[in-house]
Design goal:
6 helices, Membrane protein, Glutaredoxin, elongated, 143 residues, Thioredoxin-like_sf, four-stranded mixed β-sheet, alpha+beta
Length: 143
């Protein structure tokens, strides 16, 4: 649990600390901007910032039924956050697997990437993509 939320907590704490330092220097506007930016990034990279995660087995079964891609991700990953934000509402059309919450999902990613846990990894019924461009994944989400 702490692992899944750790990066978001650190980001929020860093924003609070840096905002406090700027506030102590009398730079109120800068303090507020820094705090808001850090907290916003913490929210975007936190688990609730993504569609509901399912297990690897559930995602594979659903993908076999509907043909939608599976996105393997982890909380705190800036590339995953960039992908999620770029998809907008289309993100819910894909099946999301949090590799920190599902060991089978992490094993799938390691099989695809040759041993590491590079995310986002996107799997369609016919091919796999490691850290694909948001444009490519948006096109996959349209189908």
């Amino acid at each position: 649990m702490v692992r899944r939320w750790g990066s978001s907590i650190v980001l929020a704490a860093a924003g609070l600390f840096l905002g406090g330092v700027l506030l102590a220097q009398g730079r109120v506007v800068s303090a507020v901007v820094v705090f808001v930016l850090f907290v916003a990034f913490a929210a975007v990279t936190s688990p609730p910032g993504f569609p509901r995660s399912v297990s690897d087995a559930e995602a594979r079964a659903a993908s076999a039924r509907d043909g939608h891609a599976i996105v393997y991700w982890r909380p705190g990953c800036p590339y995953c956050a960039r992908l999620r934000v770029s998809l907008g509402r289309r993100a819910s059309r894909l099946h999301w697997v949090d590799i920190w919450a599902d060991p089978a999902g992490a094993a799938t990613v390691r099989d695809i990437t040759g041993g590491d846990e590079t995310v986002p990894t996107v799997v369609t019924p016919s091919e796999s993509f490691v850290n694909p461009s948001p444009l490519l994944v948006r096109q996959l989400a349209l189908h």
